[in-house]
Amino acid sequence: MPLKHHRMQFPREVIVGRGAIEHVGQVCDRLGFTDSALVIAGAKTYNIAGKMVKQLLEKKEMKIDVFLVENATVRDVEAVEKKIKSVKPQLVFAVGGGTKIDVAKCSSAEQDIPFISVPTTASHDGIASPLSSIKGSDKPYSVVAQAPLAIVADTRIIMRAPWRFAVSGCEDVIAKFTAVKDWKLAHKDKDEYYGGYAASLALMSAKHVMQNIELMKKKNEEGLRILLEALISCGVSMSIAGSSRPCSGSEHLFSHALDVIKPNHGMHGERCGVGTIMMTYLHGGNWRRLRDALKGLRAPVNARELGVEKEDVIKALRMSSSMRPERYTILNKLNLRRQSYEHLAKVTEVI
Ligand SMILES: [Zn+2]
To answer: Residue 247 C-alpha to ligand 1 middle, in angstroms?
Structure first.
């Protein structure tokens, strides 16, 4: 059978480090955008970084419009699309944490213009991935939108966010250990397409963060830089795979399910981290080593620390495989009963 083709979209420029934001003007110049841009931010992230992006671009005599969003719902995306249609910018700047970037990514893709990612937190891999997750859409997980044309990640700005965000980012990267195991399993059991290179890249990011746990504990810009590079590599691995497969397996399904059962309890990465402990156990891996690493980062490792009930964890485990029926994971293979899920959560000390 001939291989189906897929399109890979990559960032053209990536600037990571202290003072990176000061380069937004040059980035626009080099990419050939000198007329206009729309800055999408939240009220807070506008003050933290959006305003600066606007001022820097205005110095270049670009026409800059601003649109503030608060959530990442279908409505927010529609509102941004309307704004794009009316001001017709050459490109969009997505300034913020997860939600603002998701909205800008999705709306710019729909309107067929590029976007530049300017993250103000490093809490998950969406800052560099071609996927976005929008609340109120028919899917509770990420769907393909477009990859950022450039990423400008200023560590001095990202340092201002609570360190909990960075820890959540580390957990989203560590989650790739089980995501890749699930992908391999789907290839073996279901003959699903498996991209060895994309898988290796995601896995390498996870190993890189694990190897630098001691540095991450110091909560400094150096650690943040390593985390950002890992998150960006994860984004690139998804661009290569053409889906979130290398970065999202059973541990993400657990996180999505828990978010449906108890919305907004724990951050995305935190829920994935707890999911990774349990899914590593199911895969027969060294879950204690992972748990120790997460504990070292002071990340939540159980239901209480996530702020959910024991019963929520069991419910989420039982619901996980139905979150995304086409995504085959260890959960489909084992097809456990309630009692076994309870045992899994107990033995890994999640409940
Ligand atoms: Zn994730």
So the answer is: 7
For residue 58, the Cα-to-chain-centroid distance in whole angstroms is 30
Structure tokens at 206: 């996870």
pTM exceeds 0.90, yes or no = yes
What Cα–Cα distance (Å) separates residue 218 from each residue in 13, 17, 109, 252, 296? Answer: 29, 17, 38, 27, 11
Ligand 1 centre to CA of 56 (Å) is: 31
d(CA 238, CA 178): 15
d(CA 231, CA 210): 13
What's the gap in Å between 127 CA and the centre of ligand 1? 10
Q: Where are the beta strands (DSSP E) in the chain?
A: 13-17, 36-41, 63-68, 91-96, 115-119, 131-132, 143-144, 150-154
For residue 12, the CA-to-ligand 1 centroid distance in Å is 23
164-207 pLDDT, tens per residue?
Answer: 999 999 999 999 999 999 999 999 999 999 999 999 999 999 99
Determine the distance separating the centroid of ligand 1 and the alpha carbon of 59, expressed in angstroms.
36
How much distance in Å is there from the Cα of 195 to the middle of ligand 1?
19
pLDDT tens, position by position, 235-287: 999 999 999 999 999 999 999 999 999 998 899 999 999 999 999 999 999 99
Q: Measured in angstroms, how far is the CA atom of residue 320 from the centroid of ligand 1? A: 15
The DSSP bridge pattern shows strands 13-17 and 150-154 to be parallel
Residue pointed to by tokens 């053409």: 242
- State the distance from the centre of ligand 1 to the C-alpha of 273, rounded, in angstroms: 10
Q: Separation of 249 CA from ligand 1 center, angstroms?
A: 9
Residue 194 CA to ligand 1 center (angstroms) comes to 19
Helix (H) and strand (E) counts in the chain: 18, 8
